[in-house]
Design a protein that fits this description.
Helix content: 10-25%
CATH class of the largest domain: Alpha Beta
Largest sheet: 6 strands, antiparallel
Number of strands: 21
Oligomer: single chain
Distance between the termini: 34 Å
Radius of gyration: 22 Å
Structural class: alpha+beta
């Protein structure tokens, strides 16, 4: 096992909090990663995989187990069975934005709206990352996994990962265990070949965010640079000189609520339909007693799609403006984006969690819903 001297997780996470673990190993190749995980699992001790550290809030007490640092790299270009498409198989430790830059340079479309998202490729399918209406579920073909229960390596189709809004069977949601405890070894994406010239940009949310008309054509390079500039203005591109970027990105998920609940929120609250699917296939059959049947079946009741509402809007309209801090706290909301909880300078995980709990309580009191944290919490309670 490639064991190294443990360092504070504050040095390895974008929130800059977390003590050093008991043990730490660093895997730079696929074989080293597989071997390290099998060795750790054989001991039965607690374990934590860290890639880019951009979606982690780690507690102030030392992690009593082994941290596995995933440092694998590499992109392999593969043919696609679909004309006009190319597949990329990418190692889990590869930097996500470096992959987006590679795809942009190769004229491959499908992930450019996710430019600037920190972290590694292996984390992308775990929480189905996305931005501006584009999600990895749209391009993901399969992942290579190693399962904790067996130590076996297998290739799993994207369809078997239960990918949803910032979730999958691989994600440890707050207060629960992942349905399938496993670690991603590699990811295969299928991207459309558009070249370096202008093309029609799909996705209404992305076009709206970038100010692109429906019939307007743009280049991949322009989209990437514009997305990066937009994220930078919100403090969502890592910059050592900018305390607004010492965060886990969006700390809370946009809330998914029923259409009826959404109608109780102020009309100004931004919202987007989650789906427009008809009644589910497993919906119960409707039984019409023969005595009242008149030869015509009543029309099925329309199914109203769930609604995604803006967590940032809810936070600000609960009275918590950009830059908000609790008294004497070194944690605060970003001065650029109300959805980012930031470390303003040597904050503890306890201070970050205290602010997060306060935000949850204010939004619940004002609007009647509890915002769910997006980062993985280790040794921290909300």
């Amino acid at each position: 096992m490639p064991e190294i001297e443990p360092v504070a997780l504050a040095d390895l996470t974008t929130l800059r909090v977390g003590a050093a673990p008991d043990r730490m190993v660093e895997a730079q190749t696929r074989d080293e990663l597989i071997g390290a995980l099998r060795d750790v699992w054989a001991t039965g001790e607690p374990w934590l995989v860290v890639g880019g550290g951009s979606n982690l809030l780690v507690g102030d007490e030392p992690f009593e187990g082994t941290v596995v640092l995933v440092r694998t790299r590499g992109i392999e270009r593969l043919p696609s069975p679909r004309e006009g498409y190319t597949r990329l198989r990418v190692e889990a430790g590869h930097d996500w934005d470096a992959l987006v830059e590679y795809a942009t340079g190769e004229g491959l479309s499908g992930i450019v709206a996710m430019s600037g998202i920190p972290g590694t490729v292996g984390a992308a399918p775990v929480q189905n990352i996305g931005a501006y209406g584009q999600e990895i579920v749209e391009t993901l073909v399969e992942v290579e996994l190693i399962d904790e229960a067996t130590g076996e390596v297998s290739t799993v189709s994207a369809a078997d990962l239960a990918l949803g809004f910032r979730t999958s069977v691989l994600k440890n949601h707050y207060g629960s265990v992942a349905p399938r405890p496993a670690v991603v070894l590699s990811v295969t994406l299928e991207l459309r070949e558009v070249g370096d010239g202008p093309f029609a940009l799909s996705g209404a949310q992305l076009r709206q965010a970038l100010g692109v008309a429906e019939d307007e054509q743009v280049t991949l390079r322009w989209v990437r640079e514009t997305v990066l500039a937009t994220r930078a203005r919100k403090g969502m591109v890592l910059d050592p000189a900018d305390p607004d970027t010492r965060s886990a990105g969006s700390f809370f998920q946009n809330a998914i609520v029923s259409a009826s609940f959404a109608r109780t929120l102020p009309a100004e609250c931004p919202r987007w339909p989650v789906s427009t699917t008809a009644a589910p296939l497993d919906a119960p059959d409707r039984v019409i007693p023969l005595a009242v049947y008149e030869g015509i079946a009543p029309a099925a009741e329309p199914v109203q799609p769930d609604v995604k509402v803006s967590a940032a809007w809810l936070i600000e309209h609960a009275g918590l403006r950009k830059g908000f801090r609790l008294p004497r706290s070194r944690a605060g909301l970003s001065t650029k984006h109300a959805l980012a909880v930031t470390n303003r300078g040597d904050a503890t995980a306890g201070e970050i969690a205290e602010l997060a709990r306060y935000i949850q309580s204010r939004v619940q009191s004002e609007f009647g819903l509890i915002l769910q944290p997006e980062p993985v919490l280790v040794g921290v309670e909300l």
